Amino acid sequence: MSSTDDMQIFLTYGDIALASSLIIIVLILSWRLRLTLTKTLLTAAVRTIVQLSFIGLILAWIFAREQWYEVLLILTIMTLIAGGAAKNRVKRSYKGLFIDTLLAVSLSAVLVTSIAIFVILRVQPWYTPQFVIPILGLILGNSLTAISLTSNQLIEAFHEQQGRIEMMLSLSARPFEAVHEQIRAAIINGMTPTLNSMLVVGIVSLPGMMTGQILAGADPTQAVRYQIVTMFLICVSSTLGCTISALLIYRRFFNKNEQFLSP
């Protein structure tokens, strides 16, 4: 009798093709319900395969070499792409939006990843790609979603509540006082997905990182510990990212004379 402790399943290209064929179910539902998502679904499916296959080859090469400058280059590219993705998700743009989203994403992600690598995991050397690349990628992915939600709501609020903000300024309110409610609501909106996932993790859902480790044969208790650490890292980075983004947008909409700049 074989023991499940030693069981490890290796996926083949045939397994990938079989999983990919399940998209047909989604395509049928899209067609029957007239969701007009066929093109988007096909594009997303193809990009998923191509992008993940490409990054798999790149990571395998980097893991084998373990050169700090190559790891740093990958981390930089990941951060730039995350900043651009966060910017592209904002419906109402303004001059300097990319710089603001990039700063919010990079500052929060780099700070939290550094704490994880140097303080919590104490990785030696710090540029060990097995640790630093997945951790930064996980944090970036969640942070850019939170930042884009915060940016969207705050910019929208500045457009829609311009009259209210100007009225409060005319009543001697300081700039931050005039927009505090909008900033607070925007940050809460950005943090909602992260908080919701923390409330149900382990009860309703098993996160991807933990599931992947268990499927790969890792000790479930260790997988849980890693997941707890990453959940807290994501929470902190998302909060920092949302706050930085909100403050940068706030500064864009007020001049040196503390006057509100009409959107």
TrEMBL record:
The keyword Transmembrane helix applies. Keywords: Membrane, Transmembrane, Transmembrane helix. It is found in: Membrane. The chain crosses the membrane at residues 12-29, 41-62, 68-86, 98-121, 198-216, 228-250. InterPro entries: UPF0014_fam. Its main location: membrane. It is a multi-pass membrane protein. This is Iron export ABC transporter permease subunit FetB. It comes from Psychrobacter glaciei.
